[in-house]
Amino acid sequence: MASIRRTLSPVYHDRHYENGGAPFSPSSTSSSPSQKSSGKHSSSSDPKASRRGPWRRPFYQFLAFFLIGFVLGMTPYGQIDDVNGTDRFNFEIKPPNVEESLKRREEVAVDGVSFSAESKNKKEEDFAPRKLVIVVTPTYNRAMQAYYLNRVAQTLRLVEPPVLWIVVEGNAASFETSEILRKTGVMYRHLVCKRNTTSIKDRGVRQRNTALEHIELHKLDGVVYFADDDNIYSLELFQSLRQIRRFGTWPVAMLAPSKNKAILEGPVCNGSQVIGWHTNEKSKRLRRFHVDMSGFAFNSTILWDPKRWRRPFSHPTRQLDTVKEGFQETTFIEQVVADESDMEGVPPACSRILNWHLHLDALDVPYPQGWVVQKNLEALITVK
User: Fold this and answer.
1) Is the dihedral of CA 331, 337, 341, 345 positive or negative?
2) What is the pTM of this model?
3) How confident is the model at residue 151 (pLDDT cuts 50, 70, 90)?
4) How would you write the chain as a 3-class SS string?
5) Can you state the angle between helices 175-184 and 145-157, rounded to 10 degrees?
6) CA distance 192 to 210
7) Which CDD domains does this one have (predicted)?
8) Contact assessment for residue 255 and residue 360, using Cβ atoms and an 8 Å cutoff
9) Which of 130, 252, 350, 359 allows an S-S link to 292, with CB 3.0 to 4.6 Å?
10) What pLDDT, on a 0 to 100 scale, did the predictor assign at position 59?
């Protein structure tokens, strides 16, 4: 029987095996523990092999992509015009057109917006600050006091604000007067004149001076007007007061002592210029200015800022209680103005009567039986 002998491949002849062992011999497949430990020690002891690890390639890729993104981020962007024809691949970068965007906004805007803006401007003009009207009213304990105070209060309530009503009482502030002032709805200040008013005939002089001291102390800026509680006033008068720059005056209708005729006292005007005075023969040669106490008003800054008006007087502007009755007006006006050139006629041409001084409040009115004099504002009469 023929036997076939297989020859070894030359590939296997060229291999070198450790210790001369065959490729599948037990000696080649199994290695001693000493050999394994020596192999590990040899691979870890090489520093260059550890540095050439698999992290180099991702690092260079990350760095390349980072540089590309940085360059693209720094590239300016703008409006790109779309082109036609042969220049299809030619792009021009332009900044945004501000003028065109503004024109588009103006075209889209609604007309109602302009109307609202105009209405806002009109409202701002309407809400221009008005001058403060400072009304000074002296009062005292008498039978018709509550009636007179309420009548003046109802008139002041109809005047456009701001209005400050300074009510001055003598000796002490009564509870009844305070109650009336609180219920009027008018901004007020309740003052007390502690000076003795029984020694002079016109007790309102010192009460008005108390109000003037208060205005000067607190530097109230407005137009001061002396309004007695027994007079009758029109709303047009208080509206005209805010037009006064320095000193304004107007004619006042007065009831004669005989109560059978009316007397006109005040300025004669040519427009707003004062050129003369309405007067009677009795006081023609004695008074410099023929004006009633309720027939003039003046700027309050004259009291506490005399340099602004170049006033020669260094003493405070006050009414004089040493002069005769009826001369307090002219002596006070002489401290405020030099002559008629510093006055303003109100209203123009002084053509209308704005208030009446009737002199109807008699001093000797007896109290009815059962009334309490100390609380006359809340007097009650027992009805049988």
Assistant:
1) negative
2) 0.64
3) very high
4) CCCCCCCCCHHHHHCCCHHHCCCCCHHHHCCCHHHHHHHHHHHHCCHHHHHCCCCHHHHHHHHHHHHHHHHHHCCCCCEECCCCHHHHHCCCEECCCHHHHHHHHHHHCCHHHHHHHHHHHHHHHHCCCCCCEEEEEECCCCCCHHHHHHHHHHHHHCCCCCEEEEEEEECCCCHHHHHHHHHHCCCEEEEEECCCCCCCCCCHHHHHHHHHHHHHHHCCCCEEEECCCCCEECHHHHHHHCCCCCEEECCEEEECCCCCCEEEEEEEEECCEEEEEECCCCCCCCCCCCCCCCCEEEECHHHHCHHHHCCCCCCCCCCCCCCCCCCHHHHHHHHHCCCHHHCEECCHHHCCCCEEECCCCCCCCCCCCCCCHHHHHHCCCCCC
5) 20
6) 8
7) GlcAT-I
8) yes
9) 252
10) 82
List Cα–Cα distances, 360 to 52, 53, 74, 144, 229, in angstroms.
Answer: 122, 120, 94, 10, 11
More confident residue, 82 or 316: 316
Q: Which of 36-40, 221-225, 260-264, 317-321 is modeled with the greatest confidence?
A: 221-225
User: What are the residue numbers of the active site?
Assistant: 329
Q: Is the pLDDT of residue 170 over 70?
A: yes
